[in-house]
Design goal:
alpha/beta, Rossmann fold, Alpha-Beta Plaits, TIM Barrel, 3 domains, 22 strands, binds ligand C2E, binds magnesium ion
Length: 575
């Protein structure tokens, strides 16, 4: 039943109106001026205010103005009543926000029609407001792309699951799944295709959970945002159960998704934290599962890892190195070392590989094997790599000018540098600044980098080749190269990975692989350089296999420029 507040200074008119409305089924309240009306509105929250304009103390317009500026009553419809048919007063009332205007004397029907229409409209408005706020509430907890609960919803829901596990002494696994290479798909096929892919992945995760035999009401999938999803599995028994689910989730994601007529493949890794073992609060469990995911990714993708406390320590170290790396260039802590590369038969130095060294002020020398991946992950490698390239080219040009010629300078490119759009511009800029002949520069790309997006790699390689530089495939034999691609890569050199050389004299398999690589390279008109030659025996062995070039501790470790110059000078004086 609607409550109508009748504001009227004339007592008889007020009581007549209240009586009339009472007969029509409304509940009413009366007030004799605006000020009293405001008190009543605050206390009773009427559905509609029917107010006279001309009143002592506070008139109808002032009352209306006060209501419209107070959010707690601004939505209440107001119908003004006036004796005078004064157009300007009417307009003034409408301008302040009156919903309707009735001039006295008015007919009963006229009044009731105005009231009903205002009340209906207000009810419709309230329903719409409720719908909108329900939708806003839903959007706050639902990811609009996949319709899965979002991170906030997970953090709201998870404590209930944990409380239940605590009561029944159960365990819960939180699995965070991260997609890899998603941005590539998003960039090449557009966001709509990216969204469809995310929906497909969401459906697969949900399907895996639904299929689970011993399901608990606390099992579920959420999208944490970006390329991260979370799966909760309550009442887990042993780790086998979790392992099994993680494996199934990843396998299911790895199946091709067909979008816009294309078969898309996407990789994923997963990190797992367990309640109560790895944490008892939602925040900590989530953080630990994400840490484990980082570790799984570093382990080389498509796998999963359980959280372990050491991971935090390792992450702490990485964070420190990442922070310190920022200033390493400015502070002159980075230095390029050079490892000679030699001709197997003549024994002469034909070039050098530039290898970065970091002399950390407190931690001492840090291996590139440790800090290059960090720089790669953070993107710092692009700046550091540019610096190395320039330093190595300046050095090579200086040696050539001193008469050590021909001389080749090999520089390593990381995956990120290799796919950086500005790489060609960087290389040609460095060549023209330093004056180093392009043919003296050799860029090394690892097999893994080249095979990751091979078609694109071929295009980049051709662009680099058009500058006149040489290209080498580093660590060959450690990844999975497709021969078809190998044939299409415009490479000059294959570098046999040192792991083969290590056992070349004892392991017939490694010897056979090295021999095969030499033959392969020859048939593709590439040359072969063997890394990691440490002994005279190694050298003899690779010479027998027909390998023409080598580098390794047998002749020299990577050394600072000054020592490399001494090695070159010695060779000059022998010649
Ligand atoms: P890589 O490009 O395969 O370099 C060869 C590595 O083998 C070097 O390790 C070198 O010191 C080492 N080595 C050379 N001869 C021998 C030997 O006879 N026996 C043994 N056991 N090892 C030998 P380093 O300098 O520690 O570099 C490791 C890796 O770090 C490099 O592998 C390369 O992938 C990366 N790296 C080094 N410098 C750079 C750089 O300037 N840029 C980029 N992107 N990566 C770099
Ligand atoms: Mg290399
Ligand atoms: Mg190598």
């Amino acid at each position: 039943m609607s409550l109508i507040l009748v504001v009227e200074d004339e007592p008889t008119i007020r009581s007549n109106l209240q009586r009339l409305l009472g007969i029509e089924g409304f509940t009413t309240e009366g007030a004799e001026n605006g000020a009293e009306a405001l008190k009543c509105i605050a206390a009773r929250k009427p559905d509609l205010v029917l107010s006279d304009v001309m009143m002592p103390v506070m008139d109808g317009h002032a009352l209306l103005g006060a209501m419209r500026s107070d959010p707690s009553m601004s939505q209440i419809p107001v119908i003004l009543l006036t004796a005078m048919a004064d157009r300007s007063a009417m307009r003034q009332g409408m301008n302040i926000g009156a919903d309707d205007y009735l001039t006295k004397p008015f007919q009963r029907d006229e009044l009731l029609a105005a009231l009903r229409s205002r009340l209906e409209r207000a009810a419709a408005q309230r329903a719409e407001n409720d719908r909108l706020s329900a939708e806003a509430r839903r959007l706050r907890v639902v990811d609009p792309v996949t319709d899965l609960p979002n991170r906030e919803a997970l953090l709201e829901r998870l404590p209930h699951a944990l409380a239940a596990m605590s009561r029944q002494q159960g365990r819960l696994a939180l699995i965070v799944v991260g997609l890899e290479g998603f941005s590539r798909i998003n960039d090449s096929l557009g966001h709509a295709a990216g969204d469809r892919l995310l929906r497909a992945i969401a459906d697969r995760l949900q399907a895996e959970i639904d299929r689970s035999i011993c399901s608990s009401p606390f099992d579920g999938v959420a999208r944490l945002g970006g390329v991260l999803f979370a799966v909760t599995l309550a009442e887990v028994g042993g780790n086998d159960h979790v392992d099994d689910l993680a494996r199934r989730l990843l396998a299911h994601i790895a199946e091709p998704v067909s979008i816009e007529g294309q078969e898309l493949f996407i990789d994923a890794s997963a990190g797992i934290s367990l309640y109560p073992h790895d944490g008892v609060s939602s925040d900590v469990l989530l953080e630990h599962a994400e840490t484990a995911l980082g570790e799984a990714k570093r382990g080389g993708g498509s796998g999963f890892a359980y959280f372990a406390p050491e991971m935090n320590a390792a992450a702490g170290d990485r964070l420190r190195l990442h922070n310190d790396l920022h200033r390493a260039i400015e502070r002159g802590e980075l230095e390029v070392y050079y490892q000679p590369q030699l001709n197997v038969i003549s024994g002469r130095i034909i070039g050098f590989e530039a290898l970065i060294r970091w002399q950390h002020p407190e931690l001492g020398q840090i291996s590139p094997v440790r800090f290059i991946p960090i720089a790669e992950e953070s993107g710092q490698i692009v700046a550091i790599g540019a610096w190395i390239l320039e330093a190595a080219c300046v050095q090579a040009k200086a040696w050539i000018d001193q008469g050590f010629s021909p001389l080749r300078m090999a520089v390593n490119l990381s995956a990120r540098q290799f796919s950086d759009d500005d790489l060609c511009a960087l290389v040609s800029g460095v060549l023209s600044r330093t004056g180093l002949p392009a043919a003296s520069l050799e860029l090394e790309i690892t097999e893994g980098t080249a095979m990751q997006g091979a078609e694109r790699a071929i295009a980049i390689m051709h662009r680099l080749k058009s500058l006149g530089v040489k290209l080498a495939l580093d660590d060959f034999g450690t990844g999975y190269s497709s021969l078809t691609y190998l044939k299409r890569f415009p490479l000059d050199v294959l570098k046999v990975d040192q792991s083969f050389v290590r056992n070349i004299t004892t392991d017939p398999g490694d010897a056979a692989i090295t021999r095969a690589v030499v033959l392969l390279a020859r048939s593709f008109s590439m040359s072969v350089i063997t890394e990691g030659v440490e002994t005279a025996e190694h050298l003899r062995f690779i010479a027998d296999l027909g390998c023409e070039e080598y580098q390794g501790y047998f002749f020299s470790k990577p050394v600072p420029a000054s020592e490399a110059a001494v090695l070159l000078g010695r060779q000059m004086s022998i010649a």
